[in-house]
Design a protein that fits this description.
Length: about 325
């Protein structure tokens, strides 16, 4: 998005960008744009998210929504104790979530650390399931840019189809928006053909206004997805922060024609939760985002509950505790 400046002068004598393409041409124009975004009505945002969460989904629509949610999962293991065997098992589950019912949709992706990408790639080969990899010194992001870019290049070289990066929250909270923007641009370039998901760690950004600003930085810098969280802090995806990000991608497409995906991650554990998020998507961004190319769930335990609810709809009863595998 970096272009030659094309600006006007505001009443305070500062440069005001004429178009979104002009926004990141300098630290001052980027700051002026971000702080000129409408303030978030926290009470109104949370009330709307809560209201949409009460929508009921009838049986036929529920069956469709459960299958859609399964197809949107980035099945994830991001633990220090991850082994090749665990990753292979995760890949097998992503390809055939319910081995007893081959009509069950595959998940969108498996998400692993860079050193496990090759193993995951082999496990899902030929299935259409993508391999996503966290990178840029995930989850804290506390490393030099050269180290972060090497992390990304290693993951892509190993076969990653998607890269999940974390922003420099310290730089963002210090107001150094241009550093955050330029780092995303650099990671996007290092990602090559892989799609880039930009993680904000919304639980550390403190305010809804900051989440809105981070969303716009990510989109302006070329993110293919904006993502709430790493899943490694106390507050992760919530209906309200996801609603806010859905509003951002909707508005960004209206102004630029460019569609950006959204990925809530962390804390979404039940089918009931997932269906509430799908209602948010439909009612806020619209049906164009109801596809795993544009919306994902970052989750590990969510799939099991979706499978249990799917079986309940098909048979009228819940299966026993051994029906799904323990991740």
């Amino acid at each position: 998005m970096r272009t030659t400046p094309s600006t006007e002068t505001d009443e305070a004598g500062g440069a005001t960008p004429r178009t979104l393409a002009d926004v990141p041409t300098s630290a001052s124009t980027l700051r002026r744009f971000l702080h000129g975004l409408p303030g978030v009505d926290a009470v109104g945002l949370e009330a709307r998210a809560a209201s949409l969460g009460t929508r009921s989904i009838k049986t036929t629509a529920k069956a469709y929504a459960i299958d859609l949610a399964i197809s949107m999962i980035d099945l994830t293991t991001l633990e220090g104790a991850d082994t090749a065997g665990k990753v292979r098992a995760l890949g097998a589950k992503a390809v055939h979530p319910d081995p007893t019912d081959r009509s069950t949709p595959r998940t969108a992706a498996v998400c692993v650390y860079p050193d496990m990408v090759a193993t995951a790639k082999e496990a899902v080969a030929g299935s259409g399931v993508k391999v996503a990899s966290v990178a840029t010194a995930f989850p804290a992001g506390r490393a030099a840019l050269g180290v972060k870019l090497a992390d990304v290049r290693d993951a892509v070289a190993a076969g990653a189809d998607e890269i999940d990066m974390v922003i420099d929250r310290g730089a963002f909270l210090a107001g150094d928006y241009m550093k955050v923007y330029e780092e995303i641009v650099a990671v996007k370039e290092a990602s090559g053909p892989a799609r880039l998901k930009v993680i904000f760690e919304t639980g550390e950004l403190s305010t809804y206004d900051n989440i809105r600003r981070a969303s716009w930085i990510g989109m302006l810098a070329g993110a293919d997805f904006i993502k709430t969280s790493t899943g490694k802090v106390g507050v992760n995806a919530t209906p309200a922060n996801t609603l806010l990000m859905l509003e951002a991608v909707r508005d960004f497409r209206a102004q630029t024609g460019v569609q950006v995906g959204v990925k809530p991650a962390g804390g979404i554990r039940t089918a009931k939760d997932a269906l509430k998020f799908l209602v948010l998507v439909n009612e806020t961004a619209g049906a164009d985002w109801l596809d795993n190319h544009w919306f994902r769930f970052g989750a590990s335990s969510l799939l099991n509950d979706l499978l249990m609810q799917r079986q309940k709809l098909a048979t009228g009863r819940y299966s026993g505790p051994d029906y799904v595998t323990v991740d």
